[in-house]
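Lab notebook, bench 4. We co-purified these components, and the gel suggests they stay together. Before we commit to crystallization screens, I want a quick structural picture of the whole thing.
Request: model the full complex, all chains together.
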Amino acid sequence: MGLYDNVSAADVDRALQAEERSLRDLAVLLSPEARPSLEAMAREAQRLTRWHFGRTISLYAPIYISNLCAADCIYCGFAARSGSREKRVTLNIDTIRQECQALAAQGFQNILILTGEAPKTVTVDYITEAVAVAREYFNGVSVEIYALDEPGYQQLFEAGLEGTTLYMETYDQETYHKVHLLGEKMDYDYRLDATERAGNAGVRKLSIGALLGLSDWRLDVLWTALHARHLQKHCWQSSISLSFPRLRHTPERFTIEHPVSDAELVQIMLALRLFLPEAGFNLSTREAADFRDRLIPLGITSMSAGSSTRPGGYATYRPEDVSCNTGSGRIVLEQFEIDDTRSVAEVAQAIKTAGYDPVWKDFDRAFDEE
Amino acid sequence: MNDPLIIAGRSFSSRLLIGTGKFPSATALRECIEGSEAEIVTVALRRVDINAPEEEGILSAIDTDKQLLLPNTSGARTAEEAVRLAKMARAAGCEPWIKLELTPEPRYLLPDPVETLKAAETLVKEGFVVMPYIQADPVLAKRLEEIGVATVMPLGAPIGSNRGIRTRDMIRIIIEQATVPVVVDAGLGAPSHAAEAMEMGADAVLVNTALADATDHAAMGCAFAQATAAGRMAYNAGLGPQRDSAEASSPLTGFLFD
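Here is the predicted assembly.
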């Protein structure tokens, strides 16, 4: 019998009323039996989020600095064997600077630097330089890159890194090995422990998540919650955030076997908020604009906006520019299609319309080690 | 009755201090400040660019002719970070007042007594008016007083919890022993909690979450201000000590005098 089998309506009520919720309560709230209580869960999630975060939503933008990838994750557009014919690039430091300038001009103060899984060519030293350059323009700089060892995280931290985002993709080992076919990413344990290594290196914000749709999402959500609790105990000086990336646009060779519906995604977010009242919740532009707007009052604390998932996508290889043609007649490869294509000003306005304050700055240079 | 709150020689007629995090807009914050007539408003330095304030940002809601802008070091994990923040605020033209918040633990935002003491020592020497946010720890409060802080600010309950004064017994001892104003900070979720702190003899209260989360920010600001003033008035009027259990109605020792 699984954790979320055999759930009664009374169990759902108890889980809703509890002040401290157990793992079983979380399982109950994720079960199909909790579906009729979605509205009650939403109200409790909103109350808890307002207590901890008030009516504020932080804004950030991703900067993809490379789409080179030595891994073969069969669901991903960047994968080595994805069959993509578009151009692969790694931005030089001047181009990274131009990307930063373009985003800073839009008012961003928090950014997330992303790469693929190519540790031999897209090295820690290169990423460190990218972080240092970005810190000239932004108060908060985080990375979403391949798993590092602790000295690697230490090096980025000393360059001014605020946070890491690293998705386990799936916590189910069997699925994990089925969908990750090349490179260092095949090492499940090394990836699982990476975020704790980042915390040990002093990184302040640790974001985790499962790529919803790869495996049984209820189990993946339970494991994500346990992972978050583990990090809260062992990296007690870091704040833990969760993301809910939903597999939507995948290469032809991959079919989504465990699709997550809108209602199920909402249920996942609400159940996690009730279990982890103080965790940050990130929402990317993978989701559509009107759906994102409706998620604002349900527990989201941080949103990306005006995003491009193409290296150089803000200033250099913009799809609307001729310069996007890199000379080879090929467009630069993006990781996935953006579903919320609004500008950051439009997203900030949507946040205000929902009765929330868009927060640009939430970190200060004074926190840098001298 | 003229009963000002005096901190570091400066006189304030309101005993309600306001935090500025968590408000839905600068307009809501401005309404709250006006409704409450608060004179001390604290701002997290990590949230604002003190040198180049946003047009509709938090700082736009504060009228520095009427309110003291009290910068705070929220987000700092070490004494060094807090000291750097305080100095940057002063360099940017803020008055040399600082609310010291050293909260290395982001879940409950509980204050670190060791780093707070260290930072307070440095900042007092540097000439700051230091107002430290602390656990309700009477010995720590005395140690900070000896260093020369301007107030102590013990928590009633964890930040944002709206639970009221859960640290009552320790706050009572802090008030009893204090030679500087005691400001009960954090956890006050309703005007009645503010009144309770003032009835106990606290010199002031600081409220944020309960104000930011209100539907009518001006009205809630006013409600907290009135409750704070009422609690203070009752304290001055000689409110009797409160006991947890009711007095027995028939005396146990009455037989001795029958």
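The two ends of chain A are 54 Å apart (CA to CA). Worth comparing against the SEC data before the next meeting. The mean pLDDT of chain A is 90.
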